[in-house]
Every structure is written in C-alpha cells, then in structure tokens.
Amino acid sequence: MAFPAYSLLVKPQAALLIPLFLAFAFLDRARTAQRLRATAIGILAAVLLAVLLSIPFHPSNPVAALVWLLQRFAFGSNVYPYNSVNAFNLWAIRVRCGSPTR
C-alpha cells in the first residue's frame, strides 16, 4: 500500500484506484476477514507515509500536517480540473488518423 499512497501524494488521480483496492477485500469470501485486516493495515501505513512525507513541508503536529495536505488536494482539484492533460490517449489516434465515415 505504500506505493499507491506515494503515487497519490505525487498525482492525486491515483485516487481512482482506491475502489479497486477496497473491492479486492471482498472477492474471496473465505479470505474476506484476512483481506480486510490487510487492507486496514495498508491504509494505516499509507496515512503514516503521508504524514511522514508532509512534515518537512508543514512542520507541526501530524493532524495539522494532514489538514494542510487535504487543503492542498482541495486547492489542486480546483486548479486542475482535468483527469489527464497531455497524456497518451487512444482516442487521439482515432482523431488524428481519421475514422472511416459511412
């Protein structure tokens, strides 16, 4: 869970993967409790990583650092309203190459 947490800190669009990680816990009914426990541990590790990486930018108590980090995400979501800008997109190939018209 540390790598998805780090990617979320770098580029918030990684939050789109969070439902997949949560749904993974419920795929196998026999192992649901074990997977939920592992998911909870991963979420706690991700929050801890977020706190540790945000403290150099906002040196105070950890709660204030998380509040500051959430404010940064809220500001970034207002400034950057697009999911992906200048990224490779398969639809661009269709537009550039032209599609057959009927």
Walkthrough of the structure:
It is a single chain. By secondary structure, the chain is mainly alpha-helical. Helix content is 64%, strand content 0%. The protein has 5 helices and no strands. α1 crosses α3 and α3 crosses α4. The protein is flat and about 40 Å long.
- Gyration radius, in Å: 19 Å
Strand percentage:
under 5%
How far is the N terminus from the C terminus? 48 Å
Number of helices: 5
Please estimate the helix content.
55-70%
| Secondary structure tally: strands | 0
**Coarse structural class:** mainly alpha
Core attributes:
0% strand, mainly alpha, flat, 102 residues
Compile the SSE list and pairings.
Layout: H1 2-10, H2 18-24, H3 32-54, H4 62-79, H5 90-97
In short:
By secondary structure, the protein is mainly α.
